[in-house]
Amino acid sequence: MARLTQVAHTQLSDTIQAGDYAIDATAGNGHDTLLLARLVGSAGRVLAIDRQATALSTTQQRLTIASLLDRVILTEGDHANLLSLAPQDWQGHVQAIVFNLGYLPGSDKQIITTAATTRSALDACLQLLKPGGLLSLLIYRGHAGGHDEEVVILDWLETNANHFSSLTWNDGDFPTADSPRLLNGVISI
């Protein structure tokens, strides 16, 4: 089986079309942002958010090398403020929102996403995603706070299950209590 990031990228590729809006709520090293920029084409736009300037710098370099920077809005901020960071006219029009939850690979492992900030961001997703839009969450549970974040996500999903036409979990080939989990949810509202 493919790595969970590849599974997520396949789902995104099947969902996003040229001209769409997409959000990378945790830009990190820019791999998801780069894919989203390719998928939305020249008529679409991507919002890439990260709270670390170094992450945005790496993402900017990756996009510049690929000649795709003009398709992306790079924003330094916390995904907890997703709704206020997204352009107002994107509400209800975003085709996909991507999260890689945990910490920035190769960086300070003390700077992590948290249960509280992620819950706020998930609430915003319901206002931003359009019907048929994809919510993709890659949850890295092996860091301090990772299991707490997963519990909050599961609680949020239970509370908001009526907003989704489908929810799928993928635990990879050899799941453990600390291994990553991928959630893909399609919005029905």
How would you portray this structure in words?
- The protein is an alpha/beta fold and 189 residues long.
- Helix 5 (115-128) packs parallel to helix 6 (146-160).
- The protein has helices at residues 4-15, 31-40, 53-65, 82-85, 115-128, 146-160, and strands spanning 21-24, 45-50, 72-76, 94-101, 129-139, 164-170, 181-187.
- InterPro entries: MnmM_MeTrfase (IPR010719), SAM-dependent_MTases_sf (IPR029063).
- Keywords: Methyltransferase, Transferase.
Descriptive keywords:
single chain, 189 residues, alpha/beta, Rossmann fold, seven-stranded mixed sheet, 6 helices, 7 strands, 36% helix
Topology:
Blueprint lengths: L3 H12 L5 E4 L6 H10 L4 E6 L2 H13 L6 E5 L5 H4 L8 E8 L13 H14 E11 L6 H15 L3 E7 L10 E7 L2
Helix pairs in contact: 5-6
According to DSSP, the number of beta strands is 7
Tell me the CATH superfamily: Vaccinia Virus protein VP39
What is the number of independent domains?
A: 1
> What is the CATH class name?
Alpha Beta
Into which percent range does the helicity of residues fall?
25-40%
Low-confidence stretches: none
